[in-house]
Amino acid sequence: MFKYLKQDLPASIVVFFVALPLCLGIALASGAPLFSGVIAGIIGGVIVGSLSGSNIGVSGPAAGLAAIVLTAIGALGGYENFLVAVVLGGVIQLVLGFLRAGVIGYYFPSSVIKGMLTGIGIIIILKQIPHFFGYDAEPEGADSFLEVSGENSFSSIAHIFDNLIMGSMVIGIIGLAVILIWDNVLAKKAKFFKVIQGPLVAVVLGIIFFAFTESNSVLGISNSHLVSVPIPDDFSSFLGQFTFPNFAAITNHEVWVTAFTIALVASLETLLCVEATDKLDPHKNVTPTNRELLAQGTGNIFSGLIGGLPITQVIVRSSANIQSGGRTKLSAIIHGMLLLISVILIPRLLNMIPLSVLAAILLVVGYKLAKPKLFMEMYKLGWKQWLPFIVTVVGIVFTDLLVGISLGLLVGIVVILLKSYQNSHFLHIEDKSNGKHKIKMTLAEEVTFFNKGAILKELDSLPRDTYLELDLMKTRYLDHDIIEILEDFTHVAKERNIDVKLVSKRGVVENPPSFVKFFKERPKSKLSLS
How many percent of the chain have pLDDT more than 90? Predict the structure, then answer.
């Protein structure tokens, strides 16, 4: 695990700086104690990171669960009751892992996964632009189009200059310039600039800038535009920030409903993120999805027991890890340990970091996820790839992550049905001979009820006085629905003077009196038809 420490350590520091404001912002958006987001980040890094089979995935609190958490805390009568649902949700995820439900993750089309990554990249950019200029009305980590402040992703950008903080903008620009120059120029000239990451330098400059301009009327940055980590008076008060579940609420059926909701949504987001991060991974590691559900379930049990928010694998932190050169799970584990150590030892120093500097880091992450050339690449692949991709992107930008993915997946399924409809068979038409049209219809390798419409339409359009050769030599599976269509066609064929020659691995038959009997009574071959 320590083989790639020189890559994992710098990457973990970048992920730490990305994760810290997101943990706090998601907790704020969820109506939960701020420290609950940090707990989830620590557990997601140390516990889930240790148990996961992913080399580059990073787990923690997710914006996609914020609305569920906010509603559930009120409905269940308090945060302690809600924590019971988090623990139970983790148990349910363990069950899903043991039942090998992780296979679901393999059934999302590539176009939808790429659309998800691009949509998240655009959302990151849209949400971080206001923070970059000092407009911090929306909590960090939000991903919904409609914002809690009453704005939306575009209106908040339009109101930037009504809420501009000069100091935030200046250090944001400096931080962004440092990151870009560091990555694109300096890192190519010496190994030192790869070991010390540009985002770390930007954060250090941000702290120095705040310290020197704190009393400046123009460039000074107020506390509301800085990271806000809870500061305990001593170690005892630090321990007092942990909250424990009220297991007396376990008999409340609403707790169980919330638990199942958390388990299903968190599992779905995790599986989607696993697929996405594996695609981003330059080393093309494949994450075992069932093991990931077991790791996530364990993490949620621990998180719920000590007062943390629900956990999923999250694409923003995972992509930051990949872009920073992380190679093994050690990066995720170290980032969790950094969260723990920093909130204990240096919370005051953390609270000197301007949010605009962290926004600069996330803007670079967002751009790398949503590069403009990807749109052209997907367009060139044809409408069957482009349509699910663009619907997913637009859905995520104008609604939220899960709705956008659902829309993209729905379109992807429709495209698959259309392809199945089109590819069920093909025709070969010969000239008229012996007074009859000669037509050969070859069925596909697998013909299911999805193909009913196409085959029925083709049979109905056959002209009178036709000789039809129905070729099933390559067909391995023939749905009973299709056999019934052929059975009904035998009656129509007699009325329209259509002769049928059936060619299959079970033999050749002229004008079979019954297709149903033919497929049921003949001995089955190795590639038997149903």
Answer: 67
- The answer to whether the beta carbons of residues 51 and 298 sit under 8 Å apart is yes
Q: What phi, psi does 170 have (nearest 5°)?
A: -60, -50
- Residue 159 burial (C-beta neighbours within 10 Å; 0-12, 13-18, 19+): middle
Q: What is the DSSP letter of 138?
A: S
Half-sphere exposure of 237 (CA within 13 A, CB side): 6
pLDDT score at 140? 87
Quote the pTM value.
Answer: 0.84
Burial profile 10-43: b = 16 or more Cβ within 10 angstroms, e = fewer: bbbbbbbbbbbbbbbbbbbbbbbbbbbbbbbbbb
* Both structure tokens of 437: 């049209």
Length of the chain: 530
The residue whose two tokens read 């991903």 is 143
Domains and CATH numbers, the chain: 2-395 (no CATH), 423-521 (3.30.750.24)
Rounded Cα distance between 177 and 393, Å, is 28
- Give the residue from 159, 140, 138, 157 showing the smallest Cα distance to 148: 138
